[in-house]
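User: My collaborator and I are trying to settle a disagreement about how two of our proteins should look. Neither of us wants to argue from intuition anymore, so we agreed to look at predicted structures for both before our next call. Could you fold the first one, then the second, and keep them clearly separated?

Assistant: That sounds like a sensible way to settle it. I'll keep them separate. The first protein:
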Amino acid sequence: MAQGLIVKALSGYYYVLPELEATKTSLEPSTIARPALVQCRGRGILRKHKTPPLVGDRVIYEVTENGEGMVDEILPRTSELIRPPIANVQLAVLVFSLDEPALNLQLLDKFLVHIEHEGLEILICFTKQDLLKSANASDKQLEASSEADKVYELYQQIGYTVLTTSALKRQGVQAVLDKLRGTISVFSGQSGVGKSTLLNAMMPSLRLETNEISMKLGRGKHTTRHVELIPLDNGGWVADTPGFSQLDFLQLEAEQLGACFKEFHVLSSGCKFRGCLHQHEPDCRVREALTEGKIAASRYEHYLQFLTEIKERKRRY
C-alpha cells in the first residue's frame, strides 16, 4: 500500500502522484520536470458508497501486477466541489473577462454563492484588461472600461480580493501567481475568459490549449475538457477546469442563501425575524441598507433571482 495525490482524472482512470513525489513537487518543484504518475482504477466499494475519487484527493493505493494501480481508500477531505469536481481546494480563483465575452455579473455572483457556501477563500480575477485600456479602444469599450472600474470597486468594498490582468501585456500576472503560493487552488469561471491563457502566462512551459471567442455566440469554446492539478514553481498546485455557463443550486436551501452574500450576512443578524429571506419581512436590515444605497442593486436583484431558482427547484423535487 502507498499514499499519493490524484492529479488528473480522465476516462475512468485516476492518475496518482506518489506521496514522495507530491511532497517534492510541492516543496521543490524545479527539481522535477515530469513526475511519474501511477494510472489507477477505483475500487468498486468506493462506487458502492457513492464516494468516487476526485482530483485533489489524498488516497491509499496499491500497484497491481500489470503495473497499474487500484485506489483503495480516500483520505479525509478538507473541501469538496461538485462543479468542478475537485477535493481539498483552499482557494478559488474566479476568472471573468472585462470584454470578449462581456462581463457577466449575474454569473459571477452565482459562482460567488457556490464558493462562499463551500467556505473557500476567494480571489476574483478580471482578465483582458488590455482590450479596454488600449489606445484604439472604441467608445463602447471606453464605456465598458468605466463600468469595469465601478465593478472592481464594488467587489473590493464587499470584501473580496480583486485583481485585473492582461496576459498579453503580462500585467497583474505576478500578483495572481503570488496569491497561489503554497496552496491548492482552482481556476473557474465562464468559458472563453482566458483561464488557460492566464495560466500559460504564469507558467509558459505549460502550453495549455487555448481558443478564440466565437463572435456569433459571444462566448468561448471549451478548451479544457478535464480537471487536472498543475504544479507551480512557487510550491502551489492549480486546477485548470472546464468553463461552465450554467450552475444550479442543488445543495443550497433558501435560508442559506443570504449567508452566501457577504454584505447581507453582516446585516442579517439585525433583522427582526430569524431566518429572514430579505423579501417582504418587516424590519429587514438588508432591505433597509438597499434603500440607503449601502447594498448594490445588482447584488440584491441577483439574490432575488437565485432565491426564485432555489424555490422552484424545491417545488420540482
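The second protein, kept apart from the first:
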Amino acid sequence: MEKPAVTYELLHIDKSTGARRGIVHTPHGDIQTPVFMPVGTQATVKSMTPEELKEIGAQIILSNTYHLYLRPGHEIVKQAGGLHKFMNWNRPILTDCGGFQVFSLSDLRTISEDGVEFRSHLDGSKHFFSPEKVMEIEEALGADIIMSFDECVKYPETYEYTKNSMERTTRWAKRCKVAHKNTDKQALFGIIQGGFYEDLREKSAKDLIELDFPGYAIGGISVGEPKEEFLKMLYYTTPLMPENKPRYLMGVGTPDYLLEAAIAGIDMCDCVLPTRIARNGTAMTWNGKVVVRNATYEKDWGPIDSECDCYACKNYTRAYIRHLIKANEILGVRLLSIHNIYFLTKLMERVRIEIEHDNLENFKNDFYKKYYHTKD
C-alpha cells in the first residue's frame, strides 16, 4: 500500500490540558506542531521575502487556489516548476481550495451540485470551480497539503441550509478524492463542515473519516460568531477527528484562539491577521496589542516590544515605525509584519515547550494576564 505523502507523529500529550505535541512529516520537511502558518495568498506573505520567513522560523506557509488561478494562472505556476520553485520556498506549502471564497465572495458566486460559478473580483469574468477543477489547479500548484473543495457557510445560517451544504461538501470531497492523482507527493485533506449544529458536525466528521483522508480540517468556524459559539464548536468537533492524523483549524490567528485551538488538540492554524493588522499600524506584543500609528508613540524611542528580539525590535523604535506608517512608507508595514509573524511563531514555539512540560494551562493563564490584562 502506498505511503501517504503526509503523516502525523504524536510525541506528547499535555497532562494539564490534553493538548498534543507532534510532528507533521511532509515531502518538503517536518513541521513541529502545534504550529501557526502564515498566509501567502498570492504566493507571497505580504511585503516579506521567503528568506525573512525562514529567519523568523516559519515552518509552512499557505497560498490561495482561487487567487493564483486568476493570476498568474495555475498553468504558469506549473510551468515554473510549482509553487516551491516559483516563489523560492523549499519548506512545506498548503493550498486552500477556494471554499473560503465561496463564503467571502458570496455576492459574486452561484452554487450548484456541480460546483461554484464565480465572477472574478478583478474583471467580472466568469469561472467555474468544480471539485475536479480544484484538484487540477491544486495539483498544478504543487503544494504538499491540498484541501478538498467545500462550502464555508456564513453565520448565522438555518439548519436546513447548513445540512444541505454539509452533505454537498461531503459529496464534493468524494469527487475530489477520485480526481486527486498525485497522492505520493500531495496529501488531500478533508474539511469538516456543519456550521454551528453539533449533529451536523458529527455527521460530517463521520462521513469524511470513512473516506480515509490523510488529514482533516475544521472549516466554517471563526466566521463572525460570538467567541462562546466558536469555543463550543471547536471543543465539540476536535475529538471527532482521528488521533493519528493532522488536525487543522482554518482561519484563526489571534493569540487566544491559537491557545484554545492547541488545548482542544489542534495541530495547525492559519490566518492573514499578522500582516493585515500590520498594514493598519498594529503590533502584537507579549504585553498586548500596540497600535503604533497612535499619537502616543510619536516620541517613543523604545522597541515595538521590549521582550522581543526580532529584527524590527532590535533595530527600530516605535517612533520611527509610527513615522513610516503615517507617511505610507512600505518599510513600516514590512517591519510590523516581520514582528507580528515572529511573535506568533515564538508564541507557538513556547506552546510546544509548555506542552512537553505538562504546563500549558498555567502558561495560558499567565499569558492572558499580560496580553489581555485580565486579573485572574
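Some points you might bring to the call about the second protein. The first helix runs from residue 50 to 56. The mean pLDDT is 96.
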